[in-house]
Design a protein that fits this description.
alpha/beta; Rossmann fold; seven-stranded mixed beta sheet; 38% helix
Length: 251
């Protein structure tokens, strides 16, 4: 699996892993800032962005994609920062290939199974009629009934390519739909002894107090921090706070 990668900067390697329905470009300003001191790579994970599609989409497979990227580019050991699904990929990578990870930042996700709250998004995207000449405004209106939050619709529509005669999703929606039970879960076990920073959004319910003991069973050196004025998308809601914690941690 060859992943499309946005690369910036020079120095010690840092990988940024995006969440479900996202792409490497989501890291934008954070990648540019970290690239002032580091070699920063932001890949599109499988079935996302410009990367290839594949039927298998569990955490061991996605972690292996990133491990192969690290090995191919000679980056080991690299610091890895992952958000949401990307955070689970980062944790799976550290647990399965600890020699490849120097330190880990996990943004607003825990190594636990989550309820199927996002399957409706997949169904809504698959149900959107992709007709010749479809505009972004029309696509947005077509999703509004199923996804009333304008910000979430705008985020999802970043993956709809309007460049051709008929728009098409860059997301592998069929593959993602089939993989949702695996994406919601986290079956990976083991221990990673290296430094781990866990960032939770103040307005998000993804990381609960009872998850701390789960983290520490897998990552005994984990420490926890709250990102104020942020929901689940901590790096978009309060990037300065994320950077204020992440830059010193990366060194």
């Amino acid at each position: 699996m060859r992943l499309n990668v946005i690369e910036m900067g020079e120095g010690t390697p840092v990988l940024l892993l995006h969440g479900l329905f996202g792409a490497g470009r989501n890291w934008g300003g954070i990648q540019k800032r970290l690239a002032q001191r580091h070699r920063v790579l932001a890949p599109d994970l499988r079935n996302h962005g410009e990367s290839e599609h594949a039927a298998q989409m569990d955490y061991p497979a996605m972690a292996q994609d990133v491990a192969e990227l690290i090995a191919r580019r000679g980056l080991a050991p690299a610091a890895v920062l992952g958000h949401s699904m990307g955070g689970k990929v980062a944790m799976a990578l550290a647990l399965r290939h600890p020699e490849m990870v120097s330190r880990l930042v996990v943004a607003d996700i825990a190594p636990v199974r989550y309820p199927p709250a996002l399957r409706g998004y997949v169904a809504a995207l698959r149900a959107l009629p992709l007709t010749p000449g479809l505009s972004r405004r029309e696509a947005d209106a077509g999703l509004e009934a199923a996804i009333p939050e304008a910000g979430i619709r705008a985020f999802l529509l970043q993956s709809l390519d309007f460049g051709g005669d008929v728009p098409h999703w860059k997301l592998g929606l069929a593959e993602i739909a089939a993989a949702m039970p695996a994406i919601e879960d986290f079956p990976v076990t083991g221990r990673f002894e290296g430094p781990v920073l866990v960032l939770a959004g103040e307005r998000s319910g993804y990381i609960k107090p009872e998850h701390h003991r789960v983290f520490r069973a897998l990552f005994p050196a984990a420490r926890f921090a709250m990102i104020e004025r942020a929901g689940h998308w901590v790096h978009a809601d309060n990037p300065n706070a994320v950077l204020a914690l992440t830059e010193p941690f990366l060194g």
